[in-house]
Specification:
Low-confidence stretches: none
Strand content: under 5%
Distance between the termini: 51 Å
Oligomer: single chain
Shape: globular
Order of helices and strands: HHHHHHHHHHHHHH
Radius of gyration: 20 Å
Helix content: over 70%
Length: about 325
Amino acid sequence: MTKHTSTKTPPAQRLLAWGNERFGPAPILLYFLLYLAGILYARAITGDPNPSVSPLDVVAFSAVFGYFLLVRVLDEHKDYDKDCINFPDRVLQRGVVTLDQLKVIGVLTLVPQIVVSVLVDGGVGPVTLAWLVLFGWTMLMLKEFFAREWLEPRLVPYAITHLVAGPLALIWIALIGADGKHLPASVGWLALLGFLGGATLEVGRKLHAPEDERDTVASYTRSFGGPAGAAAVLTALIVATTANCAVLLAVVRADTVVTTTVFVIVTVAAVAVTVQFGLRPSVRSTKNAELASALAVVVPLLVVITGVLTGVGP
């Protein structure tokens, strides 16, 4: 669809083409799973003996959807010049949509974020304040913390500063799920998942086979000293992410032999694929490692959601 879209296509279709290219079903599904895991875990740790999901929760997801869409819009503005060089065939870079059009979308995404936060609080309270902190950090990300020249060549520090948004977003989500109630210290495990899961996906999607390396495109393969180093880091992140999900279930006493078995199987399978990339880097093994990193986040999230829905212990 995106290849056949031009400036003569109706505006709505052009924006949809951009959305399909840069904010498609896969990331939306991931954000929905993070949202479900966040609200259910929050309810479990704040005393709900039977955490569940209601139609209102689906409506409230519009705020989370809006936030991550805003991040995508801001990234399009921040990285526009680089993307014109590295990815000239994208919808935005071809002029099919414009930065001004995306700016309007970005402003519109603020509506559900603010409305949901204020409604859950019944005014301005902890949910809204958490959103303001998240929004403030996101604006700093847009400005690259006023240290662009230093951060940009240093991929790992650059990524760490941006990955902090994950824990902040999950704390906001947890407060939405808990209706603004005070969250115990165990919410820290959920925040940690936001960082580890984000790091796993980030490293996985920026691995490159030697023949695909380009000086102008970010690469963790290069940053970590080659395929073996990158595979070692990704392996550690995969193990940490699945272990973190296991801890979430243990905290709310929803862990079982079945959930533990699934965590182990997913970890072993994802690590095996990642090691294959480290030993024999190629275009195919790179794509497999990226897929493995995604599954190492998505499957454990599904296990956490299912576990909390079916068996929170006293």
